[in-house]
Amino acid sequence: SKLQAGQQLKLECETNKDDSGVFWVRLDKNGTLHFIVFISSLSRTTFEGNMKTSTRFEAKKESKFYWLVVKSFTSQDEGKYFCLMNINQILYFSPGQPAFLPVATKATPATPAPTTQHGITEKDPCTKTPDPESSKEEDMNLFCNIFIWVPLAGACILLLIALAVTVVLCQQTRRRRCRCKR
């Protein structure tokens, strides 16, 4: 169905790798990129102006999908929509999802049906997001590694110092004994 003014537009971004969240941006007709929202992997949203909510947009994360909803589509919302994410210092873009009103706009229906446009295909690099369990496991592994290796390294250093002190004392003791026997 064609996009109508006043209609709700729902966009999705699917990922399957560990990430820290997704940015939604819009490329307008003039080629300018507009930041819309950042959705964290815990489904926390930050809209333009560091706001938690928006009058024009809704955004959330469900399982491995990041959703962006344009509540009531107008001409100022036209453009190509992209989701992007940072994974291991590499920036991944989804394919652009075009959203434009028809050139000749007729009277819009009173209750337009919502439209869903699906984003990223399996071939797309942005199809890289997270199983929350694996990211928790990695966090736990990192914590465990720090918890185990840091004290272990400290213990090794103390043992080496103790060994060095023991060797020095033993050498001094031997010398004294030799002198005493004479």
UniProtKB/TrEMBL annotation:
Biased composition (Basic and acidic residues): 120-134
Principal subcellular localization: membrane
Region (Disordered) residue spans: 111-134
Membrane protein topology class: Single-pass type I membrane protein
GO CC annotation: external side of plasma membrane
Domain Ig-like: 1-83
Pfam families xrefs: V-set (PF07686)
Keyword line: Adaptive immunity, Cell membrane, Disulfide bond, Glycoprotein, Immunity, Immunoglobulin domain, Lipoprotein, Membrane, Palmitate, Signal, Transmembrane, Transmembrane helix
Keyword Cell membrane in record: yes
GO BP terms, alphabetized: cell surface receptor signaling pathway; cytotoxic T cell differentiation; T cell mediated immunity
Superkingdom: Eukaryota
Transmembrane feature ranges: 146-169
Entry's localization field: Cell membrane
Protein name, entry field: T-cell surface glycoprotein CD8 alpha chain
Organism: Phalacrocorax carbo
